[in-house]
Write a structure and sequence with these properties.
alpha/beta; Aspartate Aminotransferase, domain 1; Aspartate Aminotransferase, domain 2; seven-stranded mixed β-sheet; 39% helix; globular
Length: 444
């Protein structure tokens, strides 16, 4: 019997069918025109109609190892041939090896993980664990944070994506971030910690189970805390018996030039949440890492949680392939080395372009904030909004062959960890050109 040949869809057909039959994230659907992507290699991807883009955001800060890494692909293929799925109550070799490897890599004495499907449900489970272990109801989280779009995770989120999803009585309490926007600037570590302690006292320390925070805030602007802040948060949590949950979904696995962002400050959280770079997003997988004092609670108490795809063999194999790629190519070291190059390119853009009001980076985790006026630092787009100039800059980048994340007045610079200096220069040449659009707004 002859095998039927399936005709490949055109870019237009793929886009039309996706829009007709699927719902796109965080968007009003009318007017959307998503790119139909065919393939990717290293730091570039190619659309179905043949356009090639340099990816300066690693998609959602997650393709850390770049596109098309054979070690990850082969790990998935090999595991699929042996055992494509087994339930979460079973043990299998990829689960065993991955858990052992993470126990070696994770900060301090964290040596046990609960595997999840991604970052949002890792945060959900971390909150659930903290409440169970402490017997306390409240969770502290920061404004300007993002922790996912599911129940407690979206309640913990401190940016406007929370607004449409808020419900009463969630037990989530928000505190201020050390950063207050480009015009007001930063608190010192002592000022930010004083605000945090005041909130703890006003809410009642015996009612607070945990404080969840991104050590370095991601989608809200790559906000790197002042030195002493993370150490002070650790001390406050210890003083009041509050568990510290560090959301390293975005910062984990080399993004900042260290395996984990907390390593920059020698802080060990009680729980750490992981995803994205864990598998370089080739297959969905998340995890909650916990210290022995947290894990021990469940020796004699039931953990009331579970997921059909917990510890999925393909995902665990993909993670092992990813960690192998990071180590063999020293991608974490590359992020540190080229992080210095990225920072220097940021500085040059700020010197050349009056619309660049601030630049921030750590490793290959960077952001550029654009302004209308260098004196007043009025942002080029308002908080939770956009502007004609930011829309024009976004479009100009796409036309020049760059994909990155543009949010409000901020442009992200987060290439895959396998990027070369020449590829960094390729991206910054495009940025140098398109920022002329912002400069015209400043001159006018």
């Amino acid at each position: 019997m002859a095998t039927e040949t399936v005709k490949a869809l055109t870019a237009e057909e793929i886009t039309e069918l996706c829009l007709r039959h699927t719902l796109y994230d965080w968007s009003a659907q009318a007017g959307l025109q998503p790119m139909a992507v065919a393939s990717g290699k290293s730091v570039h991807f190619t659309t179905v109609d043949g356009r090639r883009f340099i990816d300066f955001n690693s998609q959602l800060m997650c393709i850390n190892a770049g596109y098309g890494d054979r070690r990850i692909i082969d790990a998935i293929k090999d595991q699929a041939e042996k055992l494509a799925y087994i339930g979460p109550f079973m043990a299998h070799e990829p689960r065993a090896r991955l858990a052992q490897k993470l126990a070696q890599l994770l900060p301090g004495d964290i040596d046990k993980v609960f595997f999840t499907l991604g970052g949002a449900d890792a945060n959900e489970n971390a909150i659930k664990i903290a409440r169970a272990v402490t017997g306390r109801p409240k969770i502290l989280a920061r404004y300007r944070s993002y922790h996912g779009s599911t129940g407690n995770a979206i309640q913990a989120t401190g940016d406007p994506r929370r607004w449409a999803n808020e419900v009463g009585g969630s037990g989530l309490v928000h505190v201020l971030d050390p950063y207050h926007g480009i015009q007001r600037g930063w608190d010192t570590a002592d000022e930010a910690l004083a605000t945090l302690e005041e909130t703890i006292q006003l809410e009642g320390p015996p009612t607070i189970a945990a404080f969840i925070l991104e050590p370095i805030t991601g989608t809200n602007g790559v906000l790197i805390p002042p030195d002493g802040y993370m150490q002070g948060v650790r001390e406050l949590c210890d003083r009041y018996g509050i568990l510290l949950i560090c959301d390293e979904v975005m910062t984990g696995f080399g993004r900042t030039g260290r395996w984990f962002a907390v390593d920059h400050w020698d802080v060990v959280p009680d729980l750490i949440t992981l995803a994205k770079g864990l598998t370089s997003s080739y297959v969905p997988l998340g995890a909650v890492g916990m210290r022995p004092k947290v894990a021990a609670y469940f020796d004699d108490h039931v953990f009331y949680g579970g997921l059909t795809y917990n510890s999925h063999p393909l995902a665990c194999a993909a993670a092992l392939g990813t960690l192998r790629a990071y180590e063999e190519d020293d991608m974490v070291g590359n992020a540190k080395r080229l992080g210095a190059v990225l920072a220097s390119r940021h500085k040059k853009l700020q010197e050349r372009h009056p619309c660049v009001g601030a630049v921030r980076s750590i490793g290959l985790f960077g952001a550029i904030e654009l302004v209308r006026d260098r004196g007043t630092l009025e942002p080029l787009a308002p908080f939770n909004g956009t502007s004609p100039e930011m829309k024009a800059i976004s479009q100009a980048m796409l036309e020049a062959g760059m994909f990155t994340f543009v949010r409000w007045n901020t442009i992200m610079t987060n290439p895959p960890l396998c990027v070369t200096e020449a590829e960094l220069d390729e991206g910054f040449e495009i940025l140098d050109t398109v920022l002329e659009i912002g400069d015209r707004a400043v001159r006018n």
